[in-house]
Design a protein that fits this description.
Helices cover 36% and strands 30% of the residues. By secondary structure, the protein is an alpha+beta fold. Strands 7, 8, 17, 18, 19, 20, 21, 22 and 25 form a nine-stranded mixed β-sheet that branches. Helix 9 (316-336) packs antiparallel against helix 10 (344-372). The longest helix is centred in the last third of the chain and has 29 residues, at 344-372. The radius of gyration is 22 Å and the shape is globular. It starts with a strand and ends in a 15-residue tail after the last helix. Residues 1-9 and 52-60 have low confidence and may be disordered.
C-alpha cells in the first residue's frame, strides 16, 4: 500500500512498534512467510542504542530467558535456532524445594527430568544479547525495514491506519502492532484498559559464576519472601532470579559483591562450590496485568503490552512468542486468501487464540506466588503434600512438563514446528 513519506512513495503493510523479542520474531515470521509481497516496518529507539554498542548491552547485567520447547521449535522454524544454539544451555532437570531460609536441610519435593522427548529438552536458557542479535540480523536479511523513530500516534479508519513516527513521518498501513512494553503508550492511546496489580515483591536478577559444573540442572527454592531460582547458563555460570520483598530489594543490591555472593550461597548452598558475581545485579518490580482487549481498530497488542505475569514459572517471554506465532499465522492466512490482515474478523481470531491462554497463565502464576511466598504453616503443609503427589504421579508430572514446554496440538503452527 503506498504511503506519502516526505517526497517519496513507499509501501507499508504492517507497522510494529517495539523491537523486543516478540516484535522481532513477528517481523521475521511474516517476512519469511510472505516475502516481498508484504512490507513490514519495525520502529524502536532501542535499535539506535544497540547499533552504537555494536549489538552489546549498553550497561547493566545481562538478561537471560527460559526458552520452552514450543518457543524453541518456533525459533527453529523461522531459521535462527542454529545461530542461537551455541549460546543456549539445555535444561537437563529442574529441582524444587520448599523451606525457610534458616532451615539447615532443604528436602527435595519435586524433580523434573529435562527431556520432553528423547533428544528434546523441555527448555533452554538463552541470554538476551545473542537472541536479539540473531532475530535482528535475520529480520533485516528478509527485508524488514528498521527505524529508530518511535511510533507516537495513529488514527484508524475502516480500511487503513495512519501511523505517525516521532520525526513526523506518516505511514498508511493495514495493521499496527503495539509491542512497546508493559507501559505501552499505544495501548493507552487506543483507550484499552490494563487490569492488574503490583506485588510487594521485586526480582533481583543477574549472572553468577561457580566452581563446579551445574550439569544443566535448574533449581528453584521456595522461600517465604518468594522463589529463588538458579538457572544454568553456558559454562560454569548461572542466571539468578531472586524474589524479595520490595522494601528490602534495593538495600540488598546496594551491598558489596562479596556480601551478595555470600547471601546467594546462603540461599542456594555450596553444591556448585564458591560463588562470585559476574556483574552488577538489577531489581525489577513484579506485577500482574492483563489488557482489557488484545485488539483495537486495526491494532493488535503483543507481548508485555498485552500481559505481564509473575516470573515464578518462567513463562513471560514464551507467552510473547506465542502471541507472535498466533498473530503471524492469522496475518499470513488472511493474505493467502486475499483477505485483509487488519480486518475486525482477523483481529478477533488473534484475540480468541491468545486471550484465554494468557489469562489462564496469569491466574496460575498468581496463585502459585501467593501459595508459596509465605511461611503460613497450614499452607506450607498443603503445598508440600501437593508437590509430593505430583512427584509420585508420573502422568500428572508429564502433563505439567508439557504445559510448561508450550507444546501440543492447540498451539500455533510455528510453536509446533510447522511452517506458515
Amino acid at each position: 500500500m503506498p504511503t506519502k513519506i516526505g517526497n517519496a512513495e513507499q509501501p507499508c503493510d504492517i507497522v510494529i512498534a517495539g523491537g523486543g523479542v516478540a516484535g522481532l520474531a513477528l517481523a521475521l515470521a511474516l517476512k519469511q512467510a510472505a516475502g516481498s509481497a508484504l512490507s513490514v516496518r519495525l520502529h524502536d529507539p532501542a535499535l539506535e542504542r544497540a547499533k552504537a554498542s555494536g549489538g552489546k548491552a549498553s550497561g547493566g547485567p545481562a538478561r537471560a530467558y527460559a526458552i520452552a520447547a514450543g518457543a524453541r521449535r518456533m525459533l527453529g522454524t523461522i531459521g535462527i535456532w542454529d545461530a542461537i544454539e551455541p549460546h543456549a544451555q539445555a535444561l537437563t532437570a529442574m529441582d524444587i524445594t520448599d523451606s525457610a531460609l534458616e532451615e539447615p536441610i532443604r528436602p527435595l519435593f519435586l524433580s523434573f527430568d529435562g527431556e520432553l522427548a528423547p533428544g528434546e529438552p523441555f527448555a533452554h536458557m538463552v541470554e538476551e544479547r545473542p537472541l536479539l542479535a540473531a532475530l535482528t540480523a535475520a529480520a533485516r536479511a528478509q527485508g524488514a525495514v528498521f527505524s529508530t523513530e518511535p511510533v507516537t500516534g495513529f488514527e484508524a479508519a475502516p480500511g487503513e491506519i495512519a501511523v505517525t513516527a516521532a520525526n513526523g513521518d506518516r505511514f498508511r498501513a493495514r495493521l499496527l502492532v503495539a509491542a512497546d512494553g508493559a507501559r505501552s503508550k499505544l495501548r493507552a492511546l487506543a483507550g484499552i484498559p490494563f487490569h492488574g496489580w503490583s506485588y510487594d515483591q521485586a526480582a533481583i536478577v543477574g549472572a553468577i559464576r561457580h566452581e563446579r559444573d551445574h550439569g544443566g540442572r535448574a533449581v528453584e527454592h521456595f522461600l517465604p519472601s518468594g522463589p529463588f531460582a538458579l538457572l544454568p547458563l553456558k559454562g560454569n555460570r548461572s542466571s539468578i532470579v531472586w524474589t524479595e520483598r520490595k522494601s528490602e530489594a534495593a538495600a540488598i543490591i546496594a551491598r558489596d559483591a562479596g556480601t551478595l555472593a555470600a547471601m546467594i550461597e546462603r540461599r542456594f548452598g555450596l553444591e556448585l562450590g564458591s560463588i562470585t558475581l559476574e556483574g552488577p545485579l538489577q531489581t525489577l518490580p513484579l506485577s500482574l496485568g492483563l489488557a482489557g482487549s488484545f485488539i483495537g481498530q486495526r491494532l493488535a497488542l503483543l507481548g508485555d503490552a498485552a500481559h505481564v505475569i509473575h516470573p515464578i514459572a518462567g513463562q513471560g517471554l514464551n507467552l510473547g512468542l506465542k502471541d507472535a506465532a498466533a498473530l503471524a499465522e492469522v496475518i499470513v492466512d488472511q493474505l493467502r486468501l486475499g483477505l485483509d490482515p487488519g480486518s475486525p474478523e482477523a483481529l478477533a481470531a488473534y484475540q480468541r487464540s491468545r486471550r484465554f491462554d494468557t489469562a489462564q497463565m496469569a491466574v496460575t502464576t498468581d496463585v502459585l506466588n501467593r501459595l508459596f511466598s509465605n511461611d503460613i504453616a497450614p499452607l506450607r503443609t498443603l503445598r508440600e503434600v501437593g508437590l509430593g503427589l505430583v512427584e509420585r504421579l508420573p502422568g500428572l508430572k508429564t502433563f505439567f512438563i508439557g504445559q510448561a514446554a508450550g507444546t501440543g496440538a492447540r498451539m500455533p503452527r510455528l510453536m509446533r514446528g510447522d511452517s506458515l
